[in-house]
Each structure stands twice: as structure tokens, then as C-alpha cells.
Design a protein that fits this description.
Blueprint (H helix, E strand, L loop, with lengths): L1 E5 L7 H16 L3 E8 L17 H32 L2 E7 L11 E4 L28 E4 L11 H11 L6 E2 L2 H11 L4 E2 L9 H7 L9 E5 L4 H15 L2 E5 L11 E2 L4 H10 L2 E4 L2 H9 L4 E4 L6 H11 L5 E2 L13 H22 L1
Length: 362
């Protein structure tokens, strides 16, 4: 059986490329042939070298251009690091679909859509019919989702009807968050299975084997924050002082503030290495939380106070470590974390997730 994976594999975002890699590697471990279908819509997250915009004034565009010149070497390095990972670590299909949705694909026996927020219609500029399986396949083929995710459930009436119709394309559906499972049941009468994000399907040893270790030999607290950078740095600095460590910041992108101990161009392999070697982690990211757990690190995950929090809530509740989910105004100190019970619960969740895959792959 030949499997085609449709996900956000081409986004220059650590969580996106690493969850694609994890899905690929786990299905290969299960003995199946898999390719990542090289569908690359133009809305996928990539940092522009020169972020000019027609919606702002000429003076602002001049400032943006100058900033682009200053940051060009770092942005180019970051882009190259992501592209190298995508082309060398992912088994991409020969057929490429650059900014062009397809309406037919008969190359595979099973199509797996997900993980990541493939159903977030704000991110995908309206529902992307490809990620919702709206294309013709050979009669014997199947379509399933693995850990599909979305946010912003406030759909328009037209979107509600469209989503309802598109969901019928799937033979089986699994989702990443319990809130999404309940939403689909309440609003569309759809029974679904909650499974782990693909990054959890690979154990720490597998991730360690592809990680690039940081050059520093010093003990450090790692900060990986999406929107709450100042709060995360404040917490990290307090904990670093407490345990006599330095603070390393792993950036979501490149900006003109090239600071000491701020990693702006890290490759996905270096990202994994930074989590593996950290003494403590402060993050507001779902995948930052995930890799903290995978490597059994003490951490705090900062709540953003939005529907995005459902991603962290689901996994932290299921592992019995919801006390690690804290508000942005918290002042936490260093706190160890016994992973004996969380690891047992994580292994049980892995079994459920692999059972879903096995049932559909066999």
C-alpha cells in the first residue's frame, strides 16, 4: 500500500515541519511506503525577506526595506535551513503542486490529512478543499485524517454548510484536541477519535538521533514564545538566576534585534537539540510544550488566553500536569517535574493513537 501525506510540510515553522517528519517516520516504522505530497499553497507561513506592503505608506515601506537589508543574511540562512530539512528529511512526491490545488490524485491507496491546523479557515484563507479531501481518487483508495486541528470555530453560515459537506470526504477522522472533537460531535454529529500530535509518536531517542546539539556548554533556561515574549523572558530570567544558568531564546523568526543568546536562524534539527539540552523551558507554543514533555524537561507553558490554549490544555490535562499551564502574569520559580506517571499516561495515549493508524493502514 502506498500512502500520501497531506499536511503543512512546507511552512517555515518548526512545529509544522517536525510534525510532518514525525508522521512520515512513524508510518515508515510501521512498514508502509509513504510520500509527502508536495502541495505548497502560497498562504503557508514563510518569513518574507523584504516584508513590503501595499496597505501601508511609502515611508513605512522604506523602513521595512531598510530592515530587510539589515536582516537579509539571517533570513536567508533561516530559509535555507528550513528548505534543506524539507528537501532532505521529507520524502516528497515527484509531482509538485505549487500554489495550485488539485482536483484528482490517483497515485496513492491511502491519503492521510494532518496534523497541524489544516482546517483553520482563517489561516488557509477559507477552507482549503485539498486538506478536506475534496478531490477524486481511485475507487479502492481511502482518505483519513490524523490529528487534524483547527481554531476559530465562529464560522459563517456558508462556512458551516461547506464544512459539513467537506467532512463527508473522509472514511475516518481523528483530531488533536478534545474541544474540536466535541465541536464536531455537537455541530455535525461526527464521531471522531482524539489522538496525539505526531511529534509524540516518536520517542526521545529517535528525536535525539536527528538533533544538532547547541554549541554552548553552559546550563541554560530555554525560551520559545509565540506572542508573550516579554512575560516568558521575565519568568526565564528569574528561574535562571535561581539555578545559576543563562537564558537562551529560540526565536519564531528574524528581526533586527540580533541579541546575544538569541537563536534566530536555527534549523529544525538545532531546534530539537536546544530542547533536548535545556535545563528548564518556558514556552507559549504547543510544540514547545510537546518537546519539553518528549525530553522530560521541567517547564512552564504560558496560557495565551484564547482558543489556541485548547492545544496545550488537552495534552497537559491528559498527562496530569495541568499545573504547568500558567497565566502570563505568573511569577513561577524553579520546580522539578516527576515524569513517572506522565510517561505512563503518554505511552497509553500513544497506543490509542497507533491503534487508530493501524486500523486504517491495515
Amino acid at each position: 500500500m502506498k500512502i500520501g501525506l497531506l499536511t503543512f510540510h512546507a511552512a517555515h515553522n518548526y512545529g509544522a515541519v517536525l510534525q510532518a517528519y514525525a508522521t512520515q517516520e512513524k508510518i515508515k516504522e510501521m512498514g508502509f511506503s509513504i510520500e509527502v505530497i508536495d502541495y505548497n499553497p502560497n498562504y503557508l507561513i514563510k518569513q518574507k525577506i523584504f516584508p513590503l506592503s501595499s496597505s501601508v505608506s511609502i515611508s513605512i515601506n522604506i523602513k521595512l526595506f531598510i530592515e530587510g537589508l539589515i536582516t537579509f543574511p539571517w533570513k536567508l540562512k533561516r530559509q535555507n535551513n528550513f528548505q534543506k530539512f524539507i528537501t532532505q528529511k521529507l520524502q516528497l512526491s515527484n509531482k509538485k503542486h505549487q500554489n495550485q490545488p488539485f482536483t484528482e490524485n490517483t497515485d496513492y491507496d491511502l491519503f492521510v490529512m494532518g496534523s497541524d491546523q489544516i482546517w483553520n479557515c482563517k489561516l488557509t484563507k477559507g477552507f482549503d478543499a485539498v486538506y478536506l479531501g475534496n478531490f477524486k481518487i481511485k475507487p479502492t483508495a481511502k482518505k483519513i485524517t490524523y490529528a487534524a486541528s483547527m481554531s476559530h470555530y465562529g464560522l459563517t453560515n456558508n462556512q458551516v454548510e461547506e464544512f459539513s459537506n467537506l467532512l463527508t470526504n473522509f472514511d475516518d477522522i481523528s483530531v488533536r484536541e478534545e474541544e474540536l472533537q466535541q465541536y464536531l460531535l455537537n455541530n455535525y454529529n461526527k464521531e471522531t477519535t482524539v489522538v496525539l500530535d505526531p511529534t509524540f509518536l516518536l520517542d526521545a531517542q529517535k528525536w535525539s538521533s536527528m538533533a544538532v546539539k547547541p554549541k554552548t556548554t553552559k546550563k541554560y533556561v530555554l525560551v520559545y514564545s509565540i506572542d508573550l515574549r516579554e512575560d516568558a523572558l521575565r519568568m526565564a530570567n528569574a528561574i535562571a538566576k535561581e539555578i545559576n544558568a543563562e537564558v537562551i531564546e529560540l526565536s519564531m523568526g528574524v528581526d533586527k534585534n540580533v541579541l546575544k543568546n538569541k537563536y534566530q536562524t536555527a534549523s529544525p534539527e538545532e531546534y530539537v537539540g536546544l530542547f533536548e539540552q535545556a535545563e528548564f523551558i518556558i514556552t507559549s507554543s504547543f510544540h514547545g510544550t510537546a518537546f519539553s514533555i518528549i525530553f522530560n524537561k521541567p517547564f512552564f507553558s504560558i496560557a495565551q488566553g484564547s482558543d489556541k490554549d485548547s492545544r496545550q490544555k488537552t495534552i497537559l490535562n491528559n498527562l496530569g500536569v495541568i499545573d504547568r499551564f500558567i497565566p502570563k502574569d505568573a511569577n513561577p520559580g524553579f520546580k522539578t517535574l516527576d515524569y513517572t506517571i506522565p510517561n505512563q499516561k503518554l505511552n497509553a495515549l500513544r497506543e490509542t493513537s497507533l491503534e487508530f493508524l493501524n486500523n486504517n493502514l491495515n
